Amino acid sequence: MWQHAGRAHAGTCMTSKRLCFEPGHKPKCLVIVDDTAEWDRAVYYASRWAIRAGGGVVMLRIIEPEQRTQEWLGVADIMRAEAHEAAEAALDRAAGRANGIAAITPERVIREGAAMEQLLAVIDEDPDIAMLVLAANPGAEGPGPLVALLAHELGTFPVPVTIISGALSDQSVDSLS
Q1: pLDDT digits over 129-166, tens only?
Q2: CB of 5 closer than 8 Å to CB of 154
Q3: SUPFAM superfamilies in the record, alphabetically (predicted)?
Q4: Is residue 104 within 8 Å of residue 27, measured between CB atoms?
Q5: What is the residue-wise DSSP string for 99-139?
């Protein structure tokens, strides 16, 4: 266990230095591909950023595990396999979008576990990740679950976080990235 912003997280201590601009490395944007409608805005921005920065994009899909009981293990295994299939399909769509925008092939990562723990672990494991890009829901229901969760962690987050409005058009994002 280690501490991050006063909260305990399972995993290793975030001591790895960012190497994204060192010789032999290139900066990468990390994008979360989830089930929200606005994930496309984050992928679009990250892909445009990758062109301008000469960097890459890492796409992360997090599968939060279901509670398992002994009598339902078979069903849980089927649900886990289906979740992995859905994750692959979501990453296929997002990678196709990134390729269409920037002619890049993003890295793809699927992780299982609590969202914040997995997000921090991926950043810790890849010293070339220079930024996390998220998109916020423009609706009255709030910015989205991950943006809301991150709001409590931003002061101690290990990389800069860019939050793109889900209401921005491609042309608006082009002028910002």
Answers
A1: 999 999 988 887 877 777 777 777 777 889 999 999 88
A2: no
A3: Adenine nucleotide alpha hydrolases-like
A4: no
A5: HHHHS---EEEEEES-HHHHHHHHHHH-TTEEEEEEEE--S
CA neighbours closer than 13 Å in the CB half-sphere of residue 29 = 29
25, 60, 163 from 100: Cα distances, Å: 24, 18, 22
**Cβ atoms of 116 and 151 closer than 8 Å:** no
CA distance 136 to 131: 16
Give me the sheet containing 161-165, strands edge to edge: 107-112, 56-63, 28-32, 129-136, 161-165
Q: Residue 128 is part of which domain span?
A: 28-66+73-175
pLDDT at 67: 56
Total count of domains within the chain = 1
Report which secondary-structure segment, H or E, holds 161: strand 161-165
Report the chain (177 residues): mean pLDDT per 10 consecutive residues. Answer: 40 62 88 91 95 94 73 75 94 96 95 93 95 89 76 82 89 83
Does residue 4 sit within a domain?
no
Tell me the CATH number at 106: 3.40.50.620
- For residue 4, give every residue at least 6 positions away whose Cβ sits within 8 Å of its Cβ, in sequence order, or none: 14, 120, 153, 156
